[in-house]
Amino acid sequence: MPKSINPATGEVIEDYADHSDADVERALENAELAYRDWRKTPYSRRADLLLRTADVLERRKDELARIATLEMGKRLKEAVAEVEKCANGCRYYAEHGEAMIADDERPGPAGRNYVAYLPIGPVLAVMPWNFPYWQCFRFIAPALMAGNVGLLKHASNVSQCALEIEKVLLEADAPQGVFQTLLISSKKVEPILRDRRIRAATLTGSEGAGSAVAATAGSEIKTTVLELGGSDPFIVMPSADIAKAVDVGVTARMQNNGQSCIAAKRFIVHEDVYDDYAARYRAKLEAMTVGDPMDAATDIGPVAMKSGVEDLEDQIERSVKAGAKLTTGGAVEGKGFYFKPGMLENVGEEAPAYREELFGPCAIFFKVASIDEAITLANDSDFGLGGSVWTNEAPEIERFVRELDQGGTHVNRMTASDPRLPFGGVKRSGYGRELSKEGIHAFMNAKTVTID
Known about the structure:
The protein has helices at residues 21-38, 43-59, 61-72, 76-100, 134-146, 159-171, 189-194, 207-219, 242-254, 274-286, 306-321, 352-355, 371-379, 394-403, 436-441; strands at residues 3-6, 11-15, 104-105, 112-119, 122-126, 149-153, 179-182, 200-204, 223-227, 232-236, 264-270, 325-331, 339-345, 362-368, 383-384, 387-390, 409-411, 426-427, 430-431, 444-451. Helix content is 42%, strand content 21%. The chain has a 7-stranded mixed sheet with strand order 12-13-14-11-10-16-17, with helices on both faces. The protein has 452 residues and is an alpha/beta fold.
């Protein structure tokens, strides 16, 4: 049974009943029926739905933000910004989607040769709790614009957010079955994905969940897009604007209470500026206010679940036993799932923090002597989602862009997703791309057409 717990207090907000097998079957039937009509709708009608959805999101942004803050603890200010980003994403695809999927004329053997981009059918989306709206709408907007329909299996601790997403689409007059939320356990994902009516799946979440979905989809020959964990490097070289790199670095690690796949997790700092950078960074962390995420004065709210604090404590404890040093931060006693912003230094290869993703407000620091060492260390990871580099030397920028093994490299700015640019990772951070032209094409049939 899905249960919403307020991480600021540890108190249960509400218990939700799982959808039954009959409910799931009805949803699959509705999706199949809806797809038959939706795939034939003109682009203008699809765009109109997304524009109405954006309007609903903006009108209800304060209400929706409060729900997200109650369910997973993100600061209210950040929750409002997340809903606004969803509205912007819907508008982006409403305005540009048609051009992205228009017939593409090509040279070829026939009198006329082109690629027709066609929808593929109902798509199952398995989504996480940390950005309960944006993770979903970055799938919903391109999928619906492409002519597909969607079913959402959201994380159980944000069930109210999941239900509200469906309500938003219905309020925007989405046809029945075009988008549906399923409150189900993880064990029901496999039979749904094996159902012939589901044509593809997208998942954002853990490596384990991604591997399970990919294995099932692979055995059924179905398309998947996976966005999994990340241990993004934040590299600071001597020519960097240190003050700006500190400010942005703190935000890049601590946004969303430190719970973001693309958060800056490994700070790789050149020895010439390490002491200065680390001291400024530590001072910023120690000045942050930890508290109620509804309070505008709060800088860091709670971790979303008690297990998140426990996992973070365990990783840090094992790393300290291996020689690392926690120079600031730690769990907070009392009600709620709080953790003071942390900073782990002197992390060697034998420390768990060297390899594992720390999903919470704790930064890992490394000192390097050269750009070669920085690149080698950054790439010495099973993950490859994104990364931020700070330098004003053109040759260094070129090397970072060409040699860092990651889905995105961001120079003198923090890693972030934007509807105008493709988003995704390499290695164990997943495969495929969301957003931009690549994102809308991910769940389309690129059909070759030749006509004499």
